[in-house]
Design goal:
alpha+beta; about 35% strand; about 30% helix
């Protein structure tokens, strides 16, 4: 009888490493599931991600931010809550549209092929906000587009 239990115990302890590997794989796949919700998009040589509608997406975007030198934030009345469907155009120094998209949340992170001067045009409803900025070297551009901002008298 003891031999039977010893054999069973030996068999169960051999499953512990297998269970550990399966559990580790599950935790590794969780960020992948989030990555599927926020898809890498490409237009020409430009890559970008957009989202941030919930805490999980914001956490994912925070982790990805160092890979993207241009980081755009979109607000409506000073709030990032429920900001989506902003039409965005990114133009190069020649005025050519390099990226044209509708955002999927209050954040859009963009990785251009090189440094340079970019014009960002964002439309929400009838309001358009335009900014021209230079991306130089290994620096980051953090731009905030605040729609329907209360006007100071």
């Amino acid at each position: 009888m003891q031999k039977k239990y010893a054999s069973l115990l030996s068999h169960m302890t051999s499953l512990v490493p297998l269970f550990s590997v399966a559990l580790l794989a599950l935790f590794i796949c969780l960020p992948s599931a989030q990555a599927q919700a926020i898809k890498l998009q490409r237009q020409g040589e430009y890559t970008f991600i957009t989202g941030g509608l919930n805490d999980e997406e914001q956490t994912y975007l925070d982790a990805q931010a160092p890979k993207y030198p241009i980081q755009l934030v979109f607000r409506n009345n000073g709030q990032i809550k429920d900001v989506k469907e902003v039409a965005l155009r990114v133009k190069n120094v020649s005025g050519e549209v390099m990226v044209e998209t509708k955002i999927k949340g209050p954040f859009l992170y963009l990785n251009p092929p090189a440094s340079g001067r970019f014009t960002f045009e964002a439309d929400l409803g009838s309001e358009t906000i335009s900014m021209t900025k230079d991306l130089i070297g290994r620096r980051y551009l953090h731009l905030v587009f605040d729609f329907n901002k209360a006007k100071a008298d």
